[in-house]
Amino acid sequence: MGDLSKPPFLDKTLHALFLDFDGTLVGFADDPDGITLEPGTLERLSALEERQGGAVALISGRALSSIDRFLAPLAFPAAGVHGQEVRYTAGGEVVTAPPPDDLATARARLQAAIGPGDKLRIEDKETALVVHYRTAPEEADRAERLGEEAVAGCSDLRLVKGHAIVEIRPAGVDKGKAIEKLMQREPFAGRKAVFIGDDTTDEDGFEWVASAGGFGIKVGSGETTAKYRLDDVAAVHRWLDAVARQ
Ligand SMILES: O=P(O)(O)OC[C@H]1O[C@H](O[C@H]2O[C@H](CO)[C@@H](O)[C@H](O)[C@H]2O)[C@H](O)[C@@H](O)[C@@H]1O
């Protein structure tokens, strides 16, 4: 698991907390709609939000509509689709940047290659596309190849690999930039950012928070630039619980 140490507790007034969703707050499931929340998740997040003076946000690759379905009635400040969508205030409007025209090209190419009955599955987030292979790991190489073919010649798109997915997203968005945007607004401004995440796409977030005087917490094994580590989703909840009760 590596030798990074357990993270310290958060200061109520100094720190802002940014949380990834899949693989960090919730365990993985075969289908993005099939995940289940750990018992007490909503109460724990509410307590943290109150303790940190509202400076708690979700930073996810998911569309915010998907996260909101699971966390309702909570609607934290958040960035969705890696920052393509941003909600600056709790319960406020979601600002969505339009996707580049190239995304329609990539969508058409994927849809032509992955039809009904295919072991691969397309998740269309409107501003990004995902090819899922969690239920067919033997299709990983094909998923990657189809992703590469879908973005060929599309300079406004980036292909990124995640946990059992290949994702096509607009160039220029990443979780570091998403955290930076939220950090310019109240109640985040002036605090030190702490970001918890598990995936390769979370590394941009770890790098940004470290550059701004905060720290990252990596969930699970694997190389990371984060300063601290927690073993798994259950360890994340134990740590969040301890912070909330402190
Ligand atoms: O940034 P995150 O909040 O971690 O979101 C990353 C991706 O999460 C979802 O996919 C992952 O979770 C699924 C449900 O457990 C799982 O089936 C899949 O294999 C995982 O990669 C979501 O579907 C993607 O759109 C997000 O980009």
Automatic annotation (TrEMBL):
<keyword id="KW-0479">Metal-binding</keyword>
<dbReference type="GO" id="GO:0004805">
    <property type="term" value="F:trehalose-phosphatase activity"/>
</dbReference>
<dbReference type="Pfam" id="PF02358">
    <property type="entry name" value="Trehalose_PPase"/>
</dbReference>
<dbReference type="InterPro" id="IPR036412">
    <property type="entry name" value="HAD-like_sf"/>
</dbReference>
<comment type="pathway">
    <text>Glycan biosynthesis; trehalose biosynthesis.</text>
</comment>
<dbReference type="InterPro" id="IPR044651">
    <property type="entry name" value="OTSB-like"/>
</dbReference>
<comment type="similarity">
    <text>Belongs to the trehalose phosphatase family.</text>
</comment>
<dbReference type="InterPro" id="IPR006379">
    <property type="entry name" value="HAD-SF_hydro_IIB"/>
</dbReference>
<dbReference type="GO" id="GO:0046872">
    <property type="term" value="F:metal ion binding"/>
</dbReference>
<protein>
    <recommendedName>
        <fullName>Trehalose 6-phosphate phosphatase</fullName>
        <ecNumber>3.1.3.12</ecNumber>
    </recommendedName>
</protein>
<dbReference type="InterPro" id="IPR023214">
    <property type="entry name" value="HAD_sf"/>
</dbReference>
<keyword id="KW-0378">Hydrolase</keyword>
<dbReference type="InterPro" id="IPR003337">
    <property type="entry name" value="Trehalose_PPase"/>
</dbReference>
<comment type="function">
    <text>Removes the phosphate from trehalose 6-phosphate to produce free trehalose.</text>
</comment>
<dbReference type="GO" id="GO:0005992">
    <property type="term" value="P:trehalose biosynthetic process"/>
</dbReference>
<keyword id="KW-0460">Magnesium</keyword>
